[in-house]
């Protein structure tokens, strides 16, 4: 932290001051919780299959190597004794496995509101908002448009409102109306004031990363020592498949690692384009790319919290367009889950689709992707709500519709659903009703009916005639109405006035200094 940002203002009011104000919208949603996935994971690979992919990934690292364009990374690999030829780095499997063994299997990220702390790893499954689309679509506009700051802020309001969204990823839509040199300052300020959930920094140049590190530190009122003692935020990077890591992303990760923050490494490998057409080959390539960076970060700071990510899908071989929510995507996610457990690393996957509007295709593809996350034992699900057109469009209607699915997944995981205590077996109730009665009116039902089953907020369970009389709203139309209700009744979570002022001052100062350099 720079000296001119000190002394630190401490947050006042204790934990009570961090409790988000109750939203006035009457949308029925579950309370905040960090769900635990108790199902046994789906494992399509047998032991030999796991070893085959592991051996394939290790051979890639040993015999082919990974291109690291970042000069600091090259110097560090040389220091570690890896074989470096220009930008090509080859590393032995023993060294890689020694480094990977330092990474924790589970860790916490604590944002400015400690009640929103999330646990990454173990059986926990966390859902995040859509991140990084350059375009926006909603039913009111009725067409695809470039994103702006207001739309970005509205999607952040949805991120805060829905308890099934656990972390705030990158920009939920790119606000292209704000110049790139200061965009990160405005959006991160919005994110830290509109939400109180764990947030992300883009690794896109040292100025952006350092600014976000400082802003997150200010938001929590932490000293340097407190901030660096445990993760308060994270960054996510993609390799440049095949077999390459670029300059700014590795630089950003190294900056986060040295300040104790978490790192997610997610190769974006499309089978048939940037990876072999076979899914096991695509997964092996993805594993090699991810482990090469994670090994570097563990060398720099052993024990740094790292997550291995998967974005392995396939292309449409007729058009070359990315496809998501496919059977191959699901299997690749499950296979990567097996490999993550083999390496003892938490796993990140995504909710995704190739659909262009919030329709049936959007929901079946996204639901496939989300359930693949459940089946794989994923710990962080990126883009869980709001994603369209392969990540090129953010949609508030899709965000609302996805949150219905996320709540259903959370309900599916609740222990009460599969409880087998005597009152759950309900022998006395069955005996009371016998063979010629019904269960509606008995006391066992009356005591439990309010919370017995999942209650939706977007689905409409009325029959056709009742639905028609009520206005015949299709799902996306209901979702749009819900979106508007949330935005119109939204209240920002509390923030200490001194901390908000310090954030405002930081943003203003960095803007006068020019923000981040650009070539335009």
Automatic annotation (TrEMBL):
Source organism, top-level taxon: Bacteria
EC id: 2.1.1.-
GO annotation, biological process: methanogenesis; methylation
Region (Disordered): 1-47
Gene3D superfamilies (alphabetical): Trimethylamine methyltransferase-like
Keyword Methyltransferase: yes
GO function terms (MF aspect): methyltransferase activity
Keywords assigned: Methyltransferase, Transferase
Pfam families: MTTB (PF06253)
Family listed: Belongs to the trimethylamine methyltransferase family.
Name of the protein described by the UniProt record: Methyltransferase
